[in-house]
Amino acid sequence: MATALFTRGSVERVKDAIDMVELVGARSDLRRVGTRHVGLCPFHDERTPSFSVNAEHGLYHCFGCGASGDAISFVRETEGLDFAEAIEHLADRYGVELEREEEDPRAEEDRRRRERLMRLLDRTATFYARYLWDSGEARAARDHLAARGLDEQVLRAFRVGYAPSAWNRVLVAGQGDGYAPAEMVAAGVAQMGRRGGYFDRFRARITFPLADARGRVLGFGARAVRDSQKPKYLNSSENELYRKGRHLFGIDRARAAAARAGRVIVVEGYTDVLALHGAGLEESVAIMGTALTPEQLTELGRAATTVLMALDADASGQEAMLRAARAAEQKGIELRVVELPKGSDPAELMAADGAPAFERLLEGALSVPEFEARRVLDGADLRTAHGRDRALELLRPLVAATPERSVVRDELVRRVTDRLEVPASYLAPGSGPDGTSRAGRPAAPDATPGAAVATRRAHPGSRAPAEPSERAFLAMCVGQPRLGRELLLHAGEGHLSEGMQLVRGHLLEHLDDPLADLPDEESTAALVTEIAMLAGSEPSSEPTLRLSFLQLDLRRVERELRAAARERDFERQRGLLEERERARERVTELMGETG
Ligand SMILES: [Zn+2]
């Protein structure tokens, strides 16, 4: 596990070395007010400062958007890093040497080999990039890229290059650097011929380094320049470093921007990414022709909570899209589909209409069920009763795929009932042509969309996915058992999603050693294990735990406020507003603000 990489002692030394004011100050100008520092929030747009930093406890909190945490979460959020990466980043920044947990000799050998191969790939990327700009042979490639309107600065930043047409330039250079031909094959830059000799894998092609989230080159994608060259695209073959379905082109350069924007844009190809970056939409990555894999989805979710798919969606089936949307929801990611004009890609759109037009397309992005519903309606024959029934059949599962009692579902139901001119009850699950509705009687014909939604059977486990903030809170309770017990007793339904409430119950009984007597229920046991491991690898403190609980509490109050506003329950709203004020005051105290 990556997070157990470093010794606890060295992680503590990193935490001690952090200068919170300096760290945050690099992103936002801070001014000292009493015991705290205030400035403009780096996480949301604002004109008056509502972001404060407590240097003593090493905490930050934004009274505007609610972002809060410690130095590690700050680096994770602003740089889009995971825990281990954030620790490495901070260790680097404050000059603390991290000690690794002792590895078994085999694992250490593997790690050294991987590092050696990655150095080779990095050198090769540098070689190709230099060759693109300096050699006469690469002129056609430079012209090709310029004709697509791609910015030289962006091309250089992405280390786009050119592989010479000679059969052994990389091979010779690599051997000069002490690499054996077999290592170059393992790294994917050379291959063995039928008669046993070695030659360069990429020749006379534009090269795109495929880097991981940390910017380490793991392979290359390469595009032919001449039409006669086959195949048009050639990638590194799968090897010990490079796995096709895992990769997102541009993720290393998109991550920080995605964390700031709260969204990541997914496009099809290299030039789409380069064009979008050139236009300032730096939160863009490409999946390079594959269907979205679970690994890619996880990586996207680490970058931002909203994923905008600007792909040729017609090419993927409805089932695949819904599956992706469900998987995203389980990870707490919102997947939306950007409708591109038929037969166009983002690079062409950008060149033709510019960034503002593309931004408008992004703003109009639809949830997956909405997008699919539109596709069904556009393809249906609405003139005949049979055609409308057929459309209803296809639409029912789409409605069922939206969250219950959500605005998204309301709007979808409204749009569909308007187009088909049927009552909303026709869209309720179980109200198919086989006759009766669930309740055993025909649904009321004049039911409003809201009513149809409300009568749906609530099925357990379909609540919002357990958020990372809940996991973090529970892990900190394990790390700080004294305060943890007290807060666990306070944490109720409004604070924790269903699965996490079961974890809470287990923790209250086994806070000293949560793993000793795991619950029988498999998914709860898995969550407890995950949370205990999180607690073991991510050091916490009482102030961070307090802040974390206040966050959950504020979230609960906001949610209840919205419900009260919907129901026009003014008395409850007043009570909740007071509650929110008290919770905010407690945050204020914690942040060292006076008065
Ligand atoms: Zn903010």
Task: Give the cofactors and ligands.
Answer: zinc ion
Helical segment count: 24
Main pleated sheet: 5 strands, antiparallel
> How many discrete structural domains?
5
| Fraction in beta strands | 5-15%
Describe the strand arrangement of the main beta sheet, using strand numbers.
1-2-3-4-5
**CATH architectural name of the largest domain:** Alpha-Beta Complex
Percent helix, as a range, is 40-55%
- Euclidean distance between termini CA atoms: 45 Å
How would you describe what is shown here?
The protein is built from 24 helices and 16 strands. By secondary structure, it is an alpha+beta fold. A hairpin with a 2-residue loop joins strand 1 (30-33) and strand 2. The protein starts with 7 loop residues before the first helix and ends in a 5-residue tail after the last helix. The protein binds zinc ion.
Provide a compact summary of the structure.
This protein is α+β, with helices and mostly antiparallel strands and 595 residues long.
Secondary structure blueprint with pairings:
Blueprint: H1 8-17, H2 20-25, E1 30-33, E2 36-39, E3 51-54, E4 59-62, E5 68-70, H3 71-79, H4 83-93, H5 105-134, H6 139-147, H7 152-157, E6 161-163, H8 169-176, H9 181-186, E7 190-192, E8 198-200, E9 205-211, E10 217-224, E11 233-235, H10 251-261, E12 263-267, H11 270-278, E13 284-286, H12 294-303, E14 306-309, H13 318-330, E15 334-337, H14 346-363, E16 366-367, H15 368-379, H16 385-400, H17 407-420, H18 449-454, H19 468-479, H20 481-490, H21 498-509, H22 522-537, H23 542-566, H24 570-590
Helix pairs in contact: 3-4, 11-14, 15-16, 15-17, 16-17, 19-20, 19-21, 19-22, 19-23, 21-22, 23-24
The structure holds zinc ion.
